[in-house]
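Write out structure tokens for Leucine-rich repeat-containing N-terminal plant-type domain-containing protein.
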Amino acid sequence: MAAQTGAAVLLASLLLALAAIASSNTEGDILYAQRQAWNDPNGVLQSWDPTLANPCYWFHVSCNNENSVARVDLGNAGISGPLIPKLGQLKSLRYMELYENKMSGPIPATLGNLKRLISLDLYSNHLTSTIPASLGNIGSLRFLRIHRNKLAGGIPASLGCLTKLLRLELQENMLTGTVPPEVLSLVLVGELTKLNVAENNLTGTVRSSKQKVTTVIQDTFN
């Protein structure tokens, strides 16, 4: 009986290890596909080699204890090109740091599937189209910084669901309309300490005198 129990435990451990390897390989395929979609004039992605066991050995990628990708750190790396929708399959991702590059195209709506994400930093790029409403599904998100892009359209009311959000920075885009009351309510019902929508095409924006919010918000409506 003891031998059977030991064999069962060993088999379970082996299956978990194989699942972790399979997950890592899938994530490696996703990141390599992203590498293929980008222009990398500085060669910062040379280590993103699909022949390695998993992406945990690549530069600018960090993994958790289960060998799943937890961070992608490529701020100010000189990269250009689009973000691929498959990035939304990196289920363990907690930090996506792609700021100060030359990223173009839309923010994939699939990023709303990253339910463990804490920080989404895409600021100072050339991203276009609208802010995906699906970002409001990331309940763990604490930092959403997508300022200094070319994003247009309205601010999704769904962002008001991000009650753990500390910083929401949307300034220096081409956003229109008004700041939804659901988003403004984060000042009262959430943990928001910074909300910046300056230098857009929004109506009714004024500087807040509330101590908790130190930047430009919209608190009047036309």
